[in-house]
């Protein structure tokens, strides 16, 4: 026997073995991967040169490289504040949520029957937010505080049906990064902002709304009631930006009349991660819930009347309403929302009160010690942040503290800001006071500095879920129970078209929890984040190389944000040339719904371009639209390969047509997994693309977030990449504006794609694309006779995904695409994408990570389902009682089996009994949940199906 050979990482990442690939190629009629790709990818755009990336590292070497980078970060003790605080993540949550593939490899819960665990966790999050804010309805998370505040601006406009065009007042005491994002968002859609120091002057302007800081970024706590009353008197809406830990101690904004409350839950157990990912939140008063952006978890019932969770009010979302959407669905941080919600479950109301009290005691002790030492304190009433006046000494104080390992914030030459957190100790206070030249106390002795009228007096977190998991044993079992209810990549294939659910390797994931990355505040001095910034800039360079663009910014923290940033770059470029009138964005009728929603966010007008019968952009209609709007054309947004999963032959010609008319070409990077190493958007005519690192580059979907959506641009657009007022590089502080709250967006998860590219190398990335295309064509070939493949390219090939047409079968038998999707659950699969981009179809993307046995298992299941459909057509199954119509089958049905077909046919169709996945509920009634909107934790009695 030959000795075992050390397998390179690429061979671990790519599922089909070389012998399997040969068999798959033989079925398709090709003798090599190169021959397949030559036939699939149009020659005019084919990139035949090797990618200029470093040689692939093995896993051990990649970890060593990341260790070296991490060692050059100096997180110290962050006492900077400004919305980012050290937190103590309970180890049971870190290990069993943040680091558990059962949670981080799950997809967005669009198939609710197999997502009940994470939906319950998100309902906990919503309930926590609703309790703390004092408002009845909260969403299932947003991206960060800045973008959540930006969403509130547009909610104000939507709630007035766009008729209230008065300015919106924003509190000058908001965090600087939040103000920066608000300005970017407002300018794009023509909302006029008035900066007002609401703590000093109150509200004296006629405005459509107001955005209030409570507490302020400098720590001051003032009563917002009079400002809220003033804006209401003028018919406007009041938005309050709040720290949830402060709301444990302070009266809720809802009790003061706030209409909307936003903020970040980062300090609820989520590491700072050098700026993200973190779960933001938004809560609204009654009457605004249908304007609420993002996802909203609600309670419905399943086919047996048992309560079940689902995403509610999905008709608001961009995949349905496109440019008229009130929500861009790609704006969630589910994994981090689960962590924050479980932090509240872990601590309960009493635990959070103790944390909040201790944080305030540390801040109060610091303030009193400074005053006793002769240092002036700017604000008398605060929660966790103290601003000291030290004329001419601010720099020396901050430098002295940094020397001892403490990061403070220099407000200006005369003021220093110090923020206390859950992690603050008396020893930290001693080091801070020493930097000020003041003696330290030996006990927490500070008097309360919270305003007595604003103390919280109502009960919070009264639902049993926040009090019944007090021991680690209980919480561990609760987390396991929830994850067992879900279907994630750790169980099996998630063959979703358009979303690329591929391997998230453990070696890639491991570094994100290292303290040198996880505990880094985004505003530490640049030299204290040297390893992180080198990692980021190296990654940006690699992404530029593989896409053929000149420059990349990783600031956008979701694909939707990357789209927005790319369109802002195009708009700024036109304006720099005096072409202010160019505001038309052409979008193919087949495009992903985020495109149209993002174009509207960027202040552009959407014009639809027709698609041909085979799904490709109609070039004749494109020419006509370009001519019609020649003087107004800003851009076209086109997905490549197409949204239909095809390499369109005319993509280069499309780029030429738009360029000739003076427009720019935005190539949506959602399908980049079909291009890497074979074609580069920046080389075949693209001017800008966003990339989905949570698709092509292995950041996991986390149940619907986190994601990263870097924007890549050609050289002429590089000056218009996102900027940030607190960027560590001075040349990136002014420009188009901030897209996300942190300079590098969700920097904490960038070690994942860094590790992936390091270990794959150029050839590995190229091979991954080839096998992804091979797998999709293999699935199409096996299923084509049973389910017609809707679109294909010139040689009958698809790209990395294929669309299976169920419409004719539905017409003949009444079996719907939803029936097929739900029946796949009984066979042990997550469903493909339903009815996108074509109603009545299934879009399948197998990825390169699934091995041949899993591909065949899926194909066998689909063929068996086709046989079941034939039995419905033949009358062998009753038209109203067959396995597809009743799918998925929950275990409780075995107690009273009432179907004409057998138990084996219903629940064991694949013959698997030992390791079968059991959906916890039957098919969920979607309409019932929207008619009876319940978006916080129902009482436990609601789930009692025995006595009730």
Note the topology:
Layout lengths: L8 H5 L4 H11 L4 H8 L18 H13 L5 E2 L12 H8 L2 H4 L11 H18 L3 E2 L6 H15 L8 E4 L4 H14 L3 E4 L12 E5 L11 H9 L3 E5 L2 H6 L10 E5 L15 E5 L12 E5 L5 E5 L6 H4 L12 H39 L3 E2 L7 E5 L4 H10 L2 E2 L1 E4 L2 E5 L6 H11 L35 H13 L21 H4 L5 H4 L11 H18 L3 E3 L5 H18 L7 E5 L4 H9 L3 E5 L9 H10 L4 E7 L11 H10 L3 E5 L19 E3 L20 E3 L37 H33 L18 E4 L1 H7 L3 H10 L6 E2 L6 E4 L7 H23 L8 H4 L16 H5 L18 H6 L17
How would you describe the overall organization of this protein?
A hairpin with a 2-residue loop joins strand 14 (409-412) and strand 15 (415-419). Helix 7 (116-133) packs parallel to helix 13. It is globular and about 85 Å long. Among the domains are: 76-294 and 329-505, Type I PLP-dependent aspartate aminotransferase-like (Major domain) (Aspartate Aminotransferase, domain 2); 770-931, Aspartate Aminotransferase, domain 1 (Alpha-Beta Complex). A 7-stranded mixed β-sheet has the order 2-8-7-6-5-3-4, sandwiched between helices. The chain has 30 helices and 25 strands. With 948 residues, it is an alpha/beta fold.
């Amino acid at each position: 026997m030959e000795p075992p050979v050390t397998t390179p990482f690429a061979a671990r990442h790519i599922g089909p073995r070389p012998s399997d690939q040969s068999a798959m190629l033989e079925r398709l009629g090709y003798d090599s991967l190169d021959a397949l790709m030559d036939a699939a990818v149009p020659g005019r755009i084919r990139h035949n040169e090797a990618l200029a990336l470093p040689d692939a590292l093995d896993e051990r070497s990649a970890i060593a490289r990341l260790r070296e980078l991490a060692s050059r970060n100096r997180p110290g003790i962050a006492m900077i504040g400004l919305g980012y605080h050290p937190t103590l993540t309970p180890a049971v949550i870190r290990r069993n949520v943040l680091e558990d593939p059962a949670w981080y490899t799950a997809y967005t819960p669009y198939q609710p029957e197999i997502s009940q665990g994470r939906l319950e966790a998100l309902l906990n999050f919503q309930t926590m937010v609703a309790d703390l804010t004092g408002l009845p309805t909260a969403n299932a998370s947003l991206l960060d505080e800045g973008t959540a505040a930006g969403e509130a601006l547009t909610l104000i406009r939507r709630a007035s049906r766009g008729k209230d065009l008065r300015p919106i007042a924003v509190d000058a005491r908001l965090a600087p990064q939040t103000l920066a994002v608000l300005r970017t968002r407002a300018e794009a859609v023509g909302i006029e902002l008035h900066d007002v120091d609401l703590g000093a002057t109150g509200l004296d302007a006629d405005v459509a709304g107001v955005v209030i800081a409570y507490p302020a970024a400098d720590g001051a706590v003032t009563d917002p009631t009079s400002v809220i009353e003033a804006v209401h008197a003028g018919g406007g809406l009041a938005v309050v930006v709040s720290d949830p830990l402060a709301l444990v101690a302070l009266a809720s904004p809802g009790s003061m009349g706030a209409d909307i409350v936003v903020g970040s839950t980062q300090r609820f157990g989520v590491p700072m991660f050098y700026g993200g990912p973190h779960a933001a939140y938004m809560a609204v008063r009654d009457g605004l819930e249908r304007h609420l952006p993002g996802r909203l978890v609600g309670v419905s019932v399943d086919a047996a009347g048992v309560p079940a969770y689902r995403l509610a009010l999905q008709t608001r979302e961009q995949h349905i309403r496109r440019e008229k959407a009130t929500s861009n669905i790609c704006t969630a941080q589910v994994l981090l929302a689960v962590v924050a919600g479980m932090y509240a479950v872990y601590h309960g109301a009493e635990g959070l009160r103790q944390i909040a009290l201790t944080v305030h005691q540390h801040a109060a002790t610091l303030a009193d010690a400074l005053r006793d030492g002769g240092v002036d304190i700017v604000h008398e009433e605060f929660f966790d942040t103290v601003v000291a006046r030290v004329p001419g000494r601010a720099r020396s104080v901050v430098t002295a503290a940094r020397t001892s390992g403490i990061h403070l914030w220099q407000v200006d030459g005369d003021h220093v800001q110090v923020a206390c957190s859950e992690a603050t100790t008396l020893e930290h206070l001693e080091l801070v006071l020493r930097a000020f030249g003041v003696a330290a106390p030996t006990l927490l002795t500070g008097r309360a500095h919270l305003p007595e009228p604003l103390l919280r007096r109502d009960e919070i977190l009264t639902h049993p879920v926040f009090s019944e998991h007090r021991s680690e044993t209980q919480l561990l079992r609760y987390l396991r129970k929830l994850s067992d209810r879900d279907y994630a990549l750790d169980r099996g294939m998630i063959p979703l078209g358009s979303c690329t659910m591929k391997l998230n390797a453990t070696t890639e994931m491991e570094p994100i929890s290292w303290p040198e990355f996880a505990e880094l505040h985004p505003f530490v001095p640049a030299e204290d984040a040297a390893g992180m910034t080198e990692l980021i800039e190296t990654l940006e360079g690699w992404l530029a190389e593989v896409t053929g663009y000149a420059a990349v910014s990783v600031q956008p923290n979701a694909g939707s944000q990357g789209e927005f940033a790319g369109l802002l770059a195009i708009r700024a470029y036109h304006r720099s040339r005096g072409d202010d009138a160019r505001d038309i964005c052409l979008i193919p009728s087949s495009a992903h719904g985020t495109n149209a929603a993002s174009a509207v966010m960027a202040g552009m007008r959407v014009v639809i371009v027709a698609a041909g019968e085979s799904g490709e952009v109609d070039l004749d209609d494109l020419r006509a639209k370009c001519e019609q709007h020649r003087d107004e054309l800003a851009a076209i947004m086109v997905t490549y390969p197409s949204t239909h999963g095809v390499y369109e032959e005319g993509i280069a010609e499309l780029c030429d047509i738009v360029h000739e008319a003076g427009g720019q070409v935005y190539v949506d990077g959602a399908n980049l997994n079909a291009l890497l190493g074979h074609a580069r958007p920046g080389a075949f005519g693209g001017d800008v693309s966003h990339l989905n690192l949570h698709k092509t580059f292995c950041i996991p979907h986390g149940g619907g977030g986190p994601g990263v959506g870097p924007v890549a641009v050609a050289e002429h657009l590089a000056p218009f990449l996102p900027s940030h007022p607190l960027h560590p590089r001075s040349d990136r502080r002014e420009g188009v504006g901030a897209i996300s709250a942190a300079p590098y967006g969700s920097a904490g998860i960038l070690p994942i794609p860094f590790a992936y590219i390091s270990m794959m190398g150029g050839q590995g990335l190229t091979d991954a694309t080839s096998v992804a295309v091979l797998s999709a064509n293999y699935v199409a070939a096996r299923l084509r006779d049973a389910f017609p493949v809707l679109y294909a390219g010139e040689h009958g090939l698809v790209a990395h995904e294929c669309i299976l047409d169920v419409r004719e079968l539905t017409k003949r038998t009444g079996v719907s695409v939803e029936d097929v999707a739900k029946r796949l659950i009984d066979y042990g699969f997550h469903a493909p994408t339903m009815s996108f981009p074509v109603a009545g179809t299934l879009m399948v993307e197998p990825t390169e990570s699934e091995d041949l046995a899993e591909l065949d298992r899926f194909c066998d299941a689909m063929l068996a389902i086709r046989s079941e459909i034939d039995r419905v057509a033949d009358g062998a199954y009753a038209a109203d009682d067959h396995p597809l119509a009743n799918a998925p089958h929950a275990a409780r049905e075995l107690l009273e089996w009432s179907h004409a077909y057998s138990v084996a046919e219903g629940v064991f169709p694949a013959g698997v009994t030992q390791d079968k996945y059991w959906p916890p509920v039957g098919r969920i009634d979607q309409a019932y949940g929207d008619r009876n909107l319940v978006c916080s934790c129902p009482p436990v009695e609601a789930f009692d199906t025995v006595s009730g």
